[in-house]
Amino acid sequence: MQKMSFGKIKDGSECFCYELKNHNGAYIRVTDFGATLVSVCVPDYEGKLRDVVLGYDSASDYEENTCFFGAVIGRSGNRIEDSKFIINDTEYHMTANENANNLHSGPDGFDNRIWTVKDWDDAHITFCLNSPDLDQGFPGEFHVEMTYGWNDDNELTFHYEGISDTDTVANMTNHSYFNLNGHDSGEVTNQMLRLDADAFTPVKDSASIPTGEIAPVAGTPFDFTTAKAIGQDMEVENIQLQYTSGFDHNFVIRKSKTGIETFADAYSEESKIGMTAKTDLPGVQFYAGNFIQGSAGKNQAVYGKHHGFCLETQYFPNAVNEPSFASPVLKAGEKYDSTTKYCFYLKSE
Asked: Looking at residue 349, what is its pLDDT?
């Protein structure tokens, strides 16, 4: 593993970037600032490495990041309605950072902190962070570890572990934006996506809080059960798409067993790079980069609308306040343990 300086943030702290390279020369880079995924470089049909995630060149750029490129989100990903929730008859309040709601745990999320490197080798790196009681408004002291794994089969693993001394919310995710033609190649609307999801969770309005309904995707633009271009139905007249300016919804993963299983497959006909995604979580937020606006990225790239897509594995948005959804509450002393994998391959003709 290679360690390199990644610049300093506003308080003067120096951050570092770490490169994990497999025996085939493909590699990932991550930084201790936010335990953020910076790069995933995998071969295309010509054997040329393409960096297939959006990102920045330095820690200071990530400090100003408004799009959450590559970020580890915690303690809770996605939205919590009215920035409050109740656990054990006690109401807890968070910082509202998206109108009245809390998005990705607020402006002081785990993505804006320097994590400690616990251990590493050529195939993995583990970051750890301690979140004190009432940090971000959440109850309990929460110790969390995030491990990135990278192997010779170009499989990228996110493994989250945590424990709290009080019942709390634990719903970690990663907010990487993928572009299988390369981070600097423009829109992803022609890239193909299949989701093993027969249902999604409609939202009430443009604030993107789910109604609590589990709605079938059949006959709607949200049907990705057969692979189709990401942009194929993006402009269809549909109130749900109007609310969110395109795809930005939680999909209910079709689960056949407990544990990790495939939930998505994406590929590019241009680069021939494919990506299979697996998780043990019940939901995935499919976001098509609707609100990326002229962000200056890596290597002088400028990212715009639909230049990347996210597959954020998760408990459903606002699940802590919605009794019909699987609960993201972690009981005191119990272990939070979740795995998501993104497996890159070359698509055959």
From this structure: 60
Q: Would residue 312 show up in a list of annotated catalytic residues for this protein?
A: yes
Q: Residue 150 belongs to what domain range?
A: 2-189+273-346
Positions of the chain with pLDDT lower than 70, given as ranges: 349
Catalytic residue among 104, 175, 183, 249: 175
From 19, 63, 145, 312, the catalytic residue: 312
Asked if residue 295 is part of any domain, the answer here is yes
Burial grade of 323 (CB within 10 A; 0-12, 13-18, 19 or more)? exposed
- Domain count within the chain: 1
| 215, part of any domain | no
Q: What is the pTM of this model?
A: 0.97
Q: Tell me, yes or no, whether 83 lies in a domain.
A: yes
Q: Read off φ and ψ for residue 252, nearest 5 degrees.
A: -85, 110
Q: Identify the CATH number of the domain in which residue 331 sits.
A: 2.70.98.10
Tell me the per-residue pLDDT of 255-271, one tens digit each, with 9 for 90 and over. Answer: 988 899 999 999 999 99
> Is 248 among the domain residues?
no
Indicate if 249 belongs to the active site.
Answer: no
